[in-house]
Design a protein that fits this description.
Strand order of the largest sheet: 2-1-12
Number of helices: 17
Largest sheet: 3 strands, parallel
Number of strands: 16
CATH superfamily of the domain at 3-341: Glycoside hydrolase, family 3, N-terminal domain
CATH class of the domain at 3-341: Alpha Beta
Oligomer: single chain
CATH topology of the domain at 3-341: TIM Barrel
Length: 485
């Protein structure tokens, strides 16, 4: 393999052949998050998903992409199509199950495995062979915005739920990627915040579910976190990746970064001067695959792969890990997905009963004062108040679901002759505040004139969202050699 071909096996992005010029992909690629794209938000961490694309169309698209890489690239190495499947595949026609924190509330690992098996069947039928799931971070602070994605605060429960989840996928030939390695939440519930915890705390609490998913669940991939650990970025942390993961635990799979996390050394942690340096630090210290949100970002990270900045033996090890996974998935022998499988699955549509069972078992009744539940048949009127009663929200990392029923609709269906009245109430958003005028804002003495910041934001100094290595910032550097204004 040429140095360029090795690099591309270590680079993963959202997109597909419609979004990237085919000539730019002639040297291969680790894989696509098909029909997804960067939202272009200031944080650069969020992706948008085409949840309107019909399941059969997605399967055919992935097959067409595989055909290109198998038949039109020099080495013919197939890609790994990857996606999100936290509590259901984030795609049209996929079943949405209760959010992770609710599934954990069942304390039922057999049910969890049944839920995960259903998700795995729907995932593989579309040609997706790697899921960026589950979140086995410990919810150490309920103020953290991603608490709903976790299995809670207990390392034992998180381990058992995580193992039950990943086994269902790995046994069906789908790679699982427990995340975020490690401790993605810091003081005050701040996302991606630097942590400085001692080894005993890490070993007894935060590392436990990851080790369980690898050793008992068979997970073949791990995703690193945005935060730093004792001053070293998780994506370039030799102690975490080389010592704990690959040496102590004998992990044989591959390690990927969270989206755009490698560049955090430049704009968050201040431990690298350039993105090329950040990429070299990450791979040299044990990361295997760089996950970026734009194809054009390869120009930022490829140089050290070609000029010796990244150790040759480390590159080869990373490539071996990726290619081993592709061989284990059987992609070289059978890169395509049988379209009849998804067609038959759509006709059955038999996973909603599992979703209902999980929803019922996940509910926890904290109080039932004066036996108000179940509601008496003698009632004449029921008042339902609140914006959330009509929204039918499914939680983060959700597709559209298959026929969502709102609280109000469900109550009316069960009420029979009882009159149900609804009022919007106060709503969940408050507009009774004033936005600080841009003229009163500054950053390191430089005034912000209502535009994207005139210089990149730096770690820990931007409030709730300290990570700001945005796609626009990347592209400005690519095009002009300096940050845009």
């Amino acid at each position: 393999m040429t140095p360029e071909e090795k690099f591309w096996q270590l680079f993963m992005i959202p997109g597909d052949l419609d979004q990237v010029n085919k000539n730019q992909l002639k040297q291969g690629l680790f894989g696509f998050q098909v029909s997804a794209a960067s939202k272009g938000d200031a944080g650069g961490q969020l992706l948008s998903y085409n949840t309107k694309e019909q399941p059969l169309a997605l399967t055919r698209k992935i097959n067409a992409i595989q055909k290109f890489f198998v038949e039109e690239t020099r080495l013919g190495i197939p890609i790994i199509a990857f996606d999100e499947a936290l509590h259901g595949l984030v795609r049209e026609g996929a079943t949405s199950f209760p959010q992770s924190i609710a599934l954990a509330a069942t304390w039922d690992t057999a049910l969890m495995n049944k839920v995960a098996s259903a998700i795995a069947i729907e995932t593989k039928a579309r040609g997706i062979r790697d899921i960026l799931t589950p979140v086995v971070n410990i919810a150490s602070d309920v103020r953290w915005g991603r608490t709903e994605e976790t299995y809670g605060e207990d390392p034992f429960l998180s381990s058992e739920m995580g193992v039950a989840f990943v086994k269902a996928f790995e046994q069906r030939g789908i790679i699982t990627t427990p995340k975020h390695f490690i401790a993605n939440v810091g003081d005050g519930g701040r996302d991606s915040y630097p942590i400085h915890w001692n080894d005993r705390l890490m070993q007894e609490i935060y590392l436990v579910p990851f080790k369980a998913c690898i050793e008992r669940g068979g997970s073949r991939s791990i995703m690193t976190a945005y935060n730093s650990v004792d001053g070293q970025a998780s994506s370039a942390n030799s102690k975490l990746l080389q010592q704990v993961l690959k040496s102590d635990w004998a992990f044989k799979g591959f390690v990927i970064s969270d989206a755009n996390a490698v560049g955090g050394e430049v704009v968050l942690h201040n431990t690298a001067k350039t993105y090329a340096d950040a990429g070299a630090h990450a791979i040299n210290n044990g990361l295997d695959v760089i996950f970026q949100t734009e194809h054009a970002h390869h120009r930022l990270f490829m140089p050290p792969f070609l000029d010796g900045g990244v150790q040759a033996d480390r590159i080869d090890e990373a490539v071996r890990r990726v290619l081993t996974a592709k061989f284990e998935l059987g992609l070289f022998e059978q890169p395509y997905t049988d379209e009849s499988v998804i067609i038959a699955l759509l006709k059955k549509n038999n996973h909603k009963n599992i979703a209902q069972e999980a929803a019922v078992k996940s509910m926890v009744l904290l109080k039932n004062e004066q036996g108000i539940l179940p509601l008496s048949s003698k009632l004449r009127k029921i008042a339902v108040i609140g914006e959330e009663a009509v929204n039918g929200r499914l939680g983060g990392y959700s597709g559209k679901g298959n026929g969502t029923t709102s609280f109000l609709e469900g109550i009316r269906q069960r009420a029979g002759r009882i009159e149900v009245k609804y009022a919007f109430g106060a709503g969940i958003h408050a507009d009774s505040f004033e936005i600080v005028p841009p003229a009163n804002l500054s950053h390191y003495g430089r005034r912000i004139e209502g535009r994207i910041l005139q210089q990149p934001w730096h770690g820990g100094r931007s409030g709730s969202y300290p990570y700001r290595c945005c796609s626009r910032f990347f592209l400005d550097i690519i095009r002009t050699g300096r940050p845009g204004e």
